[in-house]
Specification:
With 304 residues, the protein is an alpha+beta fold. It contains 8 helices and 16 strands. This is PARP catalytic domain-containing protein.
């Protein structure tokens, strides 16, 4: 029986290597291109063919393998790429910290996820970032009626195009000769899902204000509404004091948590006034009329 198991394992290993041999040597994601006459190229497309360069040595010390290995950041394989990061020979991807970066400061899988849309990553309650966000939330909470306790925090990893629009907006404001403030603000809405109870996943309910805001980066509120209406007209309102934002926090579930979004906003200033084109900071609330001027940074789950 043991010899049969070994034979099957050997056959499985051969099939796996054979499958890998048919993958593009440049991107490692798609099968190699095969011509009608049966000739197999080392790449999958013209785009990858354009990236073919002279053979290079694997970046892992002691490895003598060579070849074009663009897909692995200068290493001969995914395993050696991860090993080099683990040994500290190269810096890791700024997101996963496991693989070396191949697209800017991200590895290819993290880059694909960054393009796909927002994701949530739960912060370690003993970590520095969790403590920093909590300290700011509690420090800014000004209400004589309620004491609050932060239970969980999710970091919102926004899509790359959303971050690019935010940075471009901030740059254009500065180039127009305006001053730029970037306060941490807080926004809340009705949450009809059990966010924080199970997995860190945004729901698909149209009536869920929190999840719709995070997924659309303030382009859609609950029930698809495009903007809020308030003292300064139609736009996006957030608050410097999270206790004021808490007044808009409602829950329709059995979740023990109240939910609030911590945001970063761009407020153009004219002279000494904390207001500029399309924005107002009146000391309590921050109003912007352009969703490019505000991004979601964290989701805070708390109790009162």
């Amino acid at each position: 029986m043991s010899s049969l198991v070994k034979s099957l394992a050997h056959l499985g290993g051969q099939n796996k290597r054979k499958s890998q041999d048919h993958m593009c040597e440049i991107c490692g994601q798609r099968p190699k291109y095969v011509e009608k006459n049966g000739f197999q190229h080392p790449f999958c497309s013209r785009k990858c063919a354009a990236n073919v360069s002279q053979p290079i040595a694997c970046g892992l010390r002691g490895c003598r393998a060579t070849g074009n290995r663009t897909a692995f950041g200068g290493f001969c394989s995914d395993a050696h790429a991860k090993e080099a990061v683990h040994l500290g020979q190269v810096m890791g991807c700024t997101q996963c910290k496991i693989q070396p970066p191949t697209v800017g400061d991200l590895c290819a899988p993290c880059d694909r996820r960054a393009r796909a849309g927002p994701r949530l990553a739960e912060l370690d309650t003993k970590g520095v970032i969790f403590q920093s966000v909590t300290d700011q939330f509690l420090r800014e909470w000004k209400s004589p009626q309620n004491a609050v306790s932060v239970k969980k925090i999710y970091e919102v990893i926004i899509a790359r195009d959303v971050k690019a629009r935010y940075d471009d907006y901030k740059k254009k404001i500065a180039e127009a000769g305006n001053g730029v403030l970037e306060p941490r603000t807080f926004h809340s809405s009705q949450c009809i899902c059990d966010l924080g109870v199970g997995d860190a996943v945004l729901c698909a309910f149209q009536a869920c204000g929190i999840c719709n805001i995070v997924k659309s980066s303030f382009r859609n509120f609950a029930f698809g509404i495009a903007q809020n209406t308030g003292r300064y007209g139609a736009g996006i309102y957030s608050y410097l004091n999270p206790a004021l934002a808490d007044g808009f926090s409602t829950s329709c579930t059995t979740s023990p948590y109240r939910v609030m979004i911590a945001c970063d906003a761009v407020v153009p200033t004219v002279g000494k006034k904390k207001r500029g084109p399309g924005s107002i900071n009146d000391g309590q609330r921050v109003f912007v009329n352009n969703p490019d001027a505000i991004v979601t940074s964290y989701i805070i789950l708390y109790t009162k």
